[in-house]
Amino acid sequence: MRHVRQLFRWAGVAVAIALLFLAAGQVSSAVSPLMVLRVEGIALGDYHGAATHLAPLSNQVVDDANRDALALPTPTAGGSAPGAGPGPVPTTAPTGSPPPSAILPSAAAGSITGTVQDSQTAVGIANALVALSPGGLSTLTSSNGAFGFPTLPAGTYAVSASAPGYDPGRATVTVTANHNANLNLHLVSTTGGGSVQGVVKSSATGKAVPGAVVTLTPGSMATVTDGTGYYGFASVTAGTYTLTVTAAGYQPYSQTIGVKSGHTDQINVSLTPL
């Protein structure tokens, strides 16, 4: 009788296991593919509480259960969720190089240098204002009257100079590429000046010496005696000068003179024959 009860008990256990696997197969189709059923064996107790070890399930049954669990489709990378339309396809904008910036060729440069001088003495005028047009550049002369514009596009410019006590001066100069244009501006003094005049004669005969060269320095004032030996400088800025006289067949002559505003200095010269 005991054996009959054990047979029924075994039969019930077998039916329960079959139902269990059937239910597991249905559930495995809806669970995550990461859940894999691993059934290795089941131990059941008998009626009297003693553990009775059943033989492990066959490998075929275990493999079937694992395959059912893995039967769900696996989404691929970049795929869309079920029921969703195709995802947008990313586009890449062309990455062509930007056009190079327009580089304007710079005009080749030249320069202007020069001096501002007293028109009679040729002495440089310090702190005279020199302006350039077109361009609007300006500068002051140095202590010896020098000025300069070092970098100028090629072209024609008007250069003007002004200084206290002088009438303004103006000149036009052309600048060419990679060359310097030299310009000397001579300003006429507005202050009262004097004059110098005289006669050059031979010390041996007392006769006039025509063609003698008479100069006043500093400056660039020079003149030549006429047929009567006369020379003259009508307008001389007040100051101290050296008067020099030279003539063919005579020793050179020089002396220091002072010129005063509003006065005429009469300087007669006698040249010694060689």
Descriptive notes:
With 274 residues, this protein is mainly beta. The chain has helices spanning 2-28, 59-69, and strands spanning 43-45, 51-53, 109-118, 129-133, 138-140, 146-153, 155-162, 169-175, 180-187, 194-202, 213-217, 221-224, 230-236, 239-246, 253-259, 264-266, 269-271. The longest helix is centred in the first third of the chain and has 27 residues, at 2-28.
Give the number of domains. 3
Number of strands: 17
- CATH 4th-level superfamily of the largest domain: Carboxypeptidase-like, regulatory domain
How widely separated are the two ends?
180 Å
Largest sheet properties = 4 strands, antiparallel
| Beta-strand content bin | 35-45%
Average pLDDT number: 76
- SSE order: HEEHEEEEEEEEEEEEEEE
**What's the helical proportion of residues?**
10-25%
